[in-house]
From TrEMBL:
It comes from Saccharomonospora marina XMU15. Belongs to the mandelate racemase/muconate lactonizing enzyme family. Keywords: Metal-binding. PROSITE patterns: MR_MLE_2. One of its GO terms (molecular function) is metal ion binding. This is Enolase superfamily enzyme related to L-alanine-DL-glutamate epimerase.
Amino acid sequence: MRIERLRATPVAVPYVHDEIWAFGRRRGQVSVLLEVETDEGVTGLGEAAAYPSADIVLAVLRSVEPLVLGEDPFAIERLMRRIELIGTWHHVKATSPAIAAVEMACWDIVGKVCGQPLVNLLGGRFRERVECFFYVARSDPAEVAREARRASESGFSTCYLKVGSDEPNTDIERVEALRDGAGPSARLRIDANEAWAPGTAVRMIRELARFDLELVEQPVSGRNLDELGYVRSRVEVPLLANEASWTRHEQLAVLKAGAADVLSVDNQMDGGLLNLKRSAGMCEAAGLPVVKHSLGELGVALAAAVHAIAATPNFTYANQAYGALLSDDITEGFGGGVAGYTDGHVDVPAEPGLGVTLDPDRVARYAELYRTEGAAFSFGDPDPVLRSPALPKF
Ligand SMILES: [Mg+2]
C-alpha cells in the first residue's frame, strides 16, 4: 500500500465564548483537516491545530509532501524519522502539528485496514473512557461562576481556568467565583501561561490555595526551569508543566530538574501519537503522571488522542479538551460541545481506525467560514501586548 495524495482543508469553528489567556485571545478553533489517500482506496483522516497559523501548517504539509508520497502508511516510525531528519529537524514547534496530522492519518489507515480501533494497536483498553476537564472561559466573575455551574450540571469533575491577568485581584475574584460555581467537591485547575515572576507565583498560589486547587499549570516561565523548581519548593499545590514540557527533550529536562509534579504531553506539539506514548513512558519511569495538553482540536484530533490516552496507564488526571468552548464539530456524533461528553468523559470510538466520520456539510460550512473570515479567527488581541509588553507580567 502506498500514499498517493494529501488533501488539506482549513476549517474554522466558532467558540461559544472567546478564549482569553494571559497574552491574547481567539474566537474559534481553526484546524487543518488532512485526508491522506492511498493507492488501495483507503483514506486516513488527520487534523492539525492551526499553530502557529493555518498558513504555516499548509506550508509544512506542502514541504513534506515529497517525503510522504509513495511511502507505506504502515511504516510509521520510518516515515516520521524521514520527515524529522530530512524535512523539519530543529524546527519542531512550528512544524509539529502538521507532521502529527500525517502520522494521525496513517494510524487511521492502519486501523481501517486491520479492522481494529486504534486503541487496540496502541496497547489496548487500559480504560474504557477518557476524562477531560471543562474549560471555563475567562470572563467576569459572575460569568465564570455561571460556567462553573454549567460544568457541574454537565457532570464534569474538573474545571480549568486561565489566570495570569493584568490585575492579580481579578484573578483572585475569578478563582473564588470558580469555586462558588463549581461546588466544594470539584477539582479546580488554573493556568497562568508563564505570566508570573517566581516571587509573584509563590504569593499568588499561597493566596489562591484556600480555594483548594488541584494543579497550577505553568505559573512561571517555561524557559528557565530554576523558576519552576523555586516555586515548587515553596508551595503546597502541585505544579503542572506545560510550556516547559513541549517536546520529549524538554520533558526530560523537567524530570531531571525535578521542576514539576505532573507533565503536559501533546501529540500535536511533538510529532505524533508514538511520541506521546514515549513521553508518557518516560514520565512513568520517573514516577509522574501526565496530562494531555491541547492546542485546540476538533473531533478528528480528539479521537486520535482519546485512543492513545485510553491505552496508556499514567494519564490519571482530567485531560485538556475544548468541548466547553466549541459550538460545533466537523465529525458525525463525536467531539463538539459538552453534549458529546458523559460525566466529563469521552467514550473511546469502537469503529476501525480513529473511528470518526466526517460530516461533509459541516466540513463545507466551516471551510467556507475559514475562507471568508479565517483571519478573524487567528491568535490575536493587540491590547495585552500594549498593556503587558513583558514576560513575566509582574
Ligand atoms: Mg497551558
